[in-house]
Design a protein that fits this description.
Two copies of one chain form a homodimer.
Chain A lengths: L4 E7 L12 E7 L8 E9 L4 H5 L17 E9 L9 E5 L5 E4 L4 E4 L16 H14 L6 E5 L4 H12 L3 E6 L2 H9 L5 E4 L5 H8 L4 E6 L3 H7 L3 E9 L13 E3 L2 H6 L3 E4 L9 H14 L6 E5 L7 H6 L6 E5 L1
Parallel strand pairs in A: 8-9, 8-11, 9-10, 11-12, 12-14, 15-16
Antiparallel strand pairs in A: 1-2, 3-4, 3-6, 3-16, 4-5, 5-7
Helix pairs in contact in A: 2-3, 2-8
């Protein structure tokens, strides 16, 4: 094939807190020749994740992206050329292809083959991707919600949170969403079917939580940490489970900010608090995808996408997510 | 039988923080007549527990003792008279008989019959009582230590801690004890067989922990909270388990004191932190007693007792425990 030119976004510098467009640079370079065992993928969709802040931090993180590397991202793309077994031209894949037009990767970068034709492929980056499968896996394995229990979700309208709320509702739980704008609160009520929605910027959190959770909070799915969690923790019920899935409300952990100690709450409520990282649970990823595909087809799991066009629009998108500018899964369309 | 006179210690007032002798009063009163279904127990041993501070706090606690009541305590005593099935004069019992010479109770107050004759009965209040069974149950069910893992214990020489250290050692773990005096550190090394002992009052905690736990902390058995925990938490290994069993280093939780937020540690280490209360696990109490009886007989589980004589000596004993004046299980002999 004729030599292809790639455009890619590389990590230019490490952010002190939330990554901005200045932490990235765009480069134009030739696509390298395909080696045996590799595949060439043309990206159609790039994903923006809150977790990217962690991937760009240097301190105390599980998976930093080195400076100078193409920004790590899950993408949906199509195989243009294959020198690997089991992959053919035209295959549609979801995987770690990075913020770029063309990716030359080994099959280990592939998370899944997209074989459905009745569902839009972009949802494999959202409700059927990292966000949805994080929600399903963490809620199921760590949260273990029972029918009739109360499940509180922070960033309730976000990619993970909106899925948690709907999954918990489908299991017969009372669902309480914490969010930050009138628009998001509307989506929580009307689209994501939360039983109660609390705006943590305008409502009296303690009073609103007491009213929404008269028997306490059985499962707290925490994507924020910080003051939002400080209001939820004292309301935990006996035997509560707290899933620490993200810390979106804290801009820097170096040094860690101070907050009220929680040991006494965990002790008196015999509560469990546990960190969750999807990469520890990739063996069950396909099973949860199949479960959620069924719910999307049945209409019991809905989603929103916030799409911008063009590779360059990725560079400022992490910051926009932290500014709360997106409603639904943040995607870049190429 | 002739009318007996009882001496008892009642709760006179609620402490703001750590209970002192002033929070109690001694009373002399007749022993009530035995009703059908009741037993009369004469106490030989009373127990002093760090948990008693919690039982005397009014805020946010799982089991407050009402003002005016006889102070709640586990005791070892002998049945003087019985109007209940299954209990006879001369039976030796461990149970909730309170800080007093004579207790008239229902059989629900009995935790266990002491049927062994080769072991001193006082140990059913210590290494074979609330302390030892707390250690065994929490370590086993919540800590789930594996051979070769590193187990860190705060209040390492205490009633619970010394048992945790020895149990973890018997399972093939590397054990690290945190304690506060030279005398306790000696006991940790020589009697309780800790691999490493750190004096948190004199050692550089961060450096000492790094040196003692080169692969991080897999299980942290926390009896203290506070600054001691602040030094341990950043050293957690991936998949660590933190057992919140007590908060001895924090004098008041109203309002909760501030400390470094731990969500990011739990998230990046995928660690689990869980509160433990033995009363949730009474169904497995007898099984753990039998296990520990075997270890005491085999000499693989040793213990210390700190004994004072006379009912009045109980009144200041909780404060003394919090001042670190005891070495080993704190007991009152009548």
């Amino acid at each position: 094939m004729s030599k292809l030119t790639n455009e890619c976004i590389r990590v230019a510098s490490r952010p002190g807190g939330i990554p901005t467009a200045d932490n990235f640079r765009k480069e134009v370079e030739p696509v390298p020749d395909l080696q045996p065992g590799q595949i060439l993928v043309q990206n159609q969709w790039l994903s923006i994740e809150p977790a990217m802040r962690g991937w760009l931090a240097d301190a105390n993180n599980y998976a930093s992206v080195p400076e100078g590397d193409v920004m790590r991202s899950l993408c949906v793309g199509t195989v243009v050329e294959s020198r690997a077994d089991d992959y053919s031209k035209g295959d549609r894949l979801m995987g770690w292809f990075g913020w770029q037009h063309y990716a030359v990767v080994a099959p280990t970068a592939v998370v899944q083959n997209i074989t459905t034709s009745d569902l839009p492929p972009s949802i494999y980056l959202g409700v059927l991707g990292l966000n949805g499968i994080t929600a399903a896996t963490a809620l199921d394995k760590l949260g273990q919600p029972q029918a009739g229990e109360t499940v509180v979700v922070s960033t309730a309208a976000g990619g993970v949170g909106s899925c948690v709320g709907q999954l918990a509702k489908a299991l017969g739980c009372r669902t309480v969403g914490l969010t930050s704008t009138t628009e998001k609160a509307e989506a929580c009520k009307n689209q994501f079917a939360y039983d109660h929605v609390i705006n943590y910027k305008t409502d009296d959190m303690a009073a609103a939580l007491k009213s929404a959770c008269p028997d306490g909070v059985d499962v707290y799915f925490d994507n924020t940490s910080g003051h939002i969690s400080d209001a939820v923790m004292p309301q935990l019920a006996i035997g509560a489970r707290v899933i620490v899935c993200g810390t979106a409300s804290v801009t820097s952990w170096n040094p860690p900010p101070m907050g009220p100690r929680i040991e006494r709450i965990l002790l008196t409520r015999r509560a469990r608090m546990q960190g969750f990282l999807l990469f520890d649970h990739m063996d069950t990823y396909p099973a949860y995808v199949r479960q959620l595909e069924g719910m999307v087809r049945a209409g019991t799991l809905t989603y929103r996408e916030h799409i911008t066009d063009g590779l360059e629009s990725a560079m400022g998108a992490i910051q926009e997510v932290y500014q709360g500018k997106n409603l639904g899964k943040r995607l870049i369309r190429l």
